[in-house]
Amino acid sequence: MSMFQLHPQLEKDTVALGRFKLCRLLLMNDANYPWFILVPERENIREIYELIDSDRRQLWDESAELARTLAAVFKPDKLNIAALGNQVPQLHVHHIVRYRHDPAWPQPVWGKVPPRPYYSAEIIKLKSALLPKLDDHFHSE
What we know:
There is one protein chain. The chain has about 140 residues and is α+β, with helices and mostly antiparallel strands. Helices cover about 30% and strands about 20% of the residues. It has 3 helices and 6 strands, in the order αβββαββαβ. The longest helix is centred in the middle third of the chain and has 22 residues, at about 55-75.
């Protein structure tokens, strides 16, 4: 039985959208950008290379599935995908939809403008646009 627990900072800053086979899918509660986070549900993993081979492949597959879907739904100018972990040590992979007109373009999103929390209606609209387009291995919450 897994003892996986989501890092408290991720719990505080995100909205849970559902699960893939390996990862939880979270929405960063910042409506300035469509910003999603994949978190492999494995204990004590800080870096991608620490995952076992099959989990590492699964993470890349889930990341690619999410990225393809984000590109189709949001039609971004750029999709930023990164695993940083400077503030939150638990392995998590950011998928940030970027547009030339977004408030931080072309710089990184961190600290450029104050976060703008989503209204509940915005979250419902986002879920209805995105979640049905994810593959059959995704289960929404």
